[in-house]
Specification:
4 copies of one chain form a homotetramer. Chain A is an alpha+beta fold and about 180 residues long. The first copy, chain A, has one domain: Class II aldolase/adducin N-terminal domain (L-fuculose-1-phosphate Aldolase), CATH 3.40.225. Chain A contains 6 helices and 8 strands. Chain A has an 8-stranded mixed beta sheet, sandwiched between helices. Chain A is globular. The first copy, chain A, starts with a helix and ends with a helix. Chains in contact: A-B, A-D, B-C, C-D.
């Protein structure tokens, strides 16, 4: 059941080129004590089995290598779902700006300031910084790495991801007209 | 029946990257008194049930939040169908220009001047400005927001949308050669 | 039978974003006296019935409005098939350059100089200029309009189209690195 | 069996726009003496029969015209699979830079320096230079031509291809913000 919903969202992430290869990962909170995350190396449009990770304690080795970020977010916020993707315009913008201020109307309405988190992929530093950002807002970009978007559902987190890339793409194209 | 046609057009809008996520909306006029519009939050490639909105009077809460623009257009013009999408090059161009003058031959033939409408998404101001633009032409861009394209059918409105994005993409890429 | 091949090629043209909406058209020579062309307003990925056009004399009204170019090419050259598409990078490049000299290895090998033809879409002037270009080479771009690519088969004409857009896209992106 | 895996990877290469038309080719090592490569002119998402090429001696004429590069790599390295694609950002970057240093985190982790190989497509010079590059790393770009990526499996080689294009796309877009 959950796999179907993960796969449905994953197919949309691919169709919009928000993720490529077997990059990116997704998770949903399951009760008070754990969350379900995609497997390390799995394709978001064809996830196969998901991995249950406890909020504290040992983590199954099959879990996405990005489990640290997801766990920190679930520990420190009330978000119910997380989508991590690698949208190219958002990643590029995060290399140049310290925060992103969309000019398109959806960006201005839903994410007027997109913070940039720092730290190596998989590190505790990144996990902490992303969790700090996501305690205040629904969306951030790990510098040079990718978006972490949250929501009440996986779908909402995907929509923030789409929104972030659209905002950054519009910023990039607008520069071509100047 | 209508749902099938909405979905057919929606799939083409997605395939051409003219819309992402659950953004955008579409409607067709139904007789003298009402129009059918996509639901708030629905995906244009998988619309589910449509919502009937009267030209005057109360609006069902399920209707797309953009119903105000659609209603103003149907009240003030004879257009039979409307497609609202978020094509990134058109949105970016609308941030920089006060009107868009395509250089490609289809743009020059079918929409030699694309007006830019202003106003917050969902506002009466935007609804009025879009309706004013569309009283004179088949296509406009709400600044920083997206295209509103009209036609005798949903298909014609989609084709104007595709045309607008192509025109703006060509303008953007042409600048890369200068 | 032919429809299947037209549709197979049309789907690839769409998947590579070489054409959008119901733009573009395709034809194949059939014997000494006529050619088969897509209908006016048809989608290249779903062509429906094709229209037989004689090399001389009256043209059925259902034929693509671009029949004049196709007929001139079949009258003046030995090409067996034509694909006309609207690839955005090729169209943009044709607005800026008088001829295109690819820098990528396939472009250098298969179309080292891509000529630019001029004239309004549908005009005799364009038909003549495209035919003149295609008497000397397999591929040209109608300025601001789109590619006309030829071949022994529809597939070969499609491959030239893909090649032309790739060459122009590479030129555009290379400029972003300079 | 192998054809299915080739086709699965080919479909992903197309969906990410890493290859277009019937360009690109793929191979896997089969034992000590030979490898299986895609046919000349075949589509990577619909490969049809594969061609067995010996590591030394005569090469079947049906083999991809790029067999020379694949054979040199299998002769001089231990790589088990090769994917050759034409991703536009990687090709464009290879025209401008002598080596590529990604700024995105996956690029920095998995291919911190992407070497550029030189030589005409199909030539011994290119075959030697690519093999030299791939003796030291998993991925290189033939200047103006395309990526050659390797791995233990076809999938791994595809993932390097996707990674290379993502890295170059991010570099290109980042420049639009500067």
């Amino acid at each position: 059941m959950e796999v179907n919903e993960f796969t449905r969202i994953g197919k949309r992430l691919f169709a919009e080129h928000l993720v490529g290869g077997n990059f990116g990962n997704m998770s949903i909170r399951t009760g008070e004590e754990s969350f379900l995350i995609t497997r390390s190396g799995s394709y978001l449009d064809d996830t196969g089995d998901l991995v249950r990770v406890p909020l504290f304690g040992d983590v199954p080795s099959a879990a996405s290598s990005e489990w640290r970020v997801h766990r920190s977010v679930y520990q420190q916020t009330r978000h119910q779902a997380i989508v991590h993707a690698h949208p190219p315009c958002a990643v590029a913008a995060s290399l140049v700006y310290d925060e992103i201020n969309p000019l398109d109307s959806e960006g201005k309405m839903f994410c007027p300031t997109i913070p940039i988190a720092v730290g190596e992929p998989g590190s505790s530093e990144l996990a902490e910084d992303v969790a700090d950002c996501l305690a205040l807002t629904g969306l951030c970009i790990a510098r040079g790495h990718g978006t972490f978007a949250t929501g009440k559902t996986l779908e909402e987190a995907y929509l923030y991801t789409s929104l972030a890339e659209h905002a950054c793409r519009v910023l990039s194209i607008a520069n071509s007209f100047r």
